[in-house]
């Protein structure tokens, strides 16, 4: 399995980190991380994922659109029967350091695999919809992972109070931030710091699918306009 660090956290303390993994046919070496929970998204390919924890060993079939949660200390490996597996990885600091411990949410159960399309879609700003893959209700104590669906035109300029990394899964358009409009397409990744004004423009007929991981764990619909007013969802 080859690894590439896309967003390394830079000068931030206890940062989110985004990596990509690619793996050809075979079985990867089991690995574990004591310092981070890991949220993974299958961008392409198929595999069997093996997760070992104190509760026992589990194996799951995963394919494009599925997500995997591995908590700190759990061991994970992937078995690819054919083709190439392409994973997006997000490292979330485990609640062993001061800030991560302060914002950690209590969880009732741990779900290791979520499949896109199996959860109910929810409403956000400007006719956007989103589907949560992992949050505290599915065992993610430090972050929320979701896929947002942005139709033609996109969201107005807004900000969040949470810290977020986004990756474009499908579609193309523009990211507006810091006075610039930057083209984005599948695989484009960017970091949205708390209170950074930004907007996603979609000039195309096809929806943009955007994968987001943010912390603290919470609602992906929690957004604010530049004047501080809460941005309503399209159901408000």
UniProtKB/TrEMBL annotation:
Residues making up the signal peptide according to the UniProt record: none
Designated name of the protein: Unannotated protein
Xref: CDD domains: cupin_RmlC-like
Domain Cupin type-2: 148-207
Record InterPro entries: Cupin_2, RmlC-like_jellyroll, RmlC_Cupin_sf
Lineage: unclassified sequences, metagenomes, ecological metagenomes
């Amino acid at each position: 399995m080859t690894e590439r660090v896309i967003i390394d956290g830079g000068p931030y303390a206890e940062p989110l980190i985004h990596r990509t993994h690619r793996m050809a046919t075979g079985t990867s070496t089991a690995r574990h991380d004591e310092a981070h929970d890991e949220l993974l998204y299958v961008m392409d390919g198929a595999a069997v994922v093996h997760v070992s924890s104190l509760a026992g060993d589990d194996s799951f079939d995963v394919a494009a659109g599925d997500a995997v949660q591995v908590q700190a200390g759990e061991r994970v490996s992937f078995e690819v029967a054919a083709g190439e597996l392409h994973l997006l990885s997000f490292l979330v600091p485990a609640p062993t350091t001061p800030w991560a411990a302060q914002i950690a949410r209590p969880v009732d159960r741990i779900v290791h695999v979520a499949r896109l399309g199996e959860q109910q879609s929810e409403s956000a700003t400007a006719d956007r919809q989103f589907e949560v893959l992992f949050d505290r209700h599915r065992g993610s104590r430090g972050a929320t992972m979701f896929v947002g669906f942005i139709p033609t035109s996109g969201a107005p300029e807004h900000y969040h109070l949470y810290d977020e990394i986004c990756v474009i899964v499908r579609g193309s358009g523009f990211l507006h931030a810091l006075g610039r409009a930057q083209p984005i397409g599948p695989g484009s990744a960017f970091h949205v710091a708390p209170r950074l004004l930004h907007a996603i423009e979609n000039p195309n007929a096809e929806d943009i699918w955007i994968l987001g991981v943010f912390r603290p764990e919470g609602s992906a619909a929690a957004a604010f306009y530049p004047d501080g007013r809460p941005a309503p969802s399209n159901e408000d």
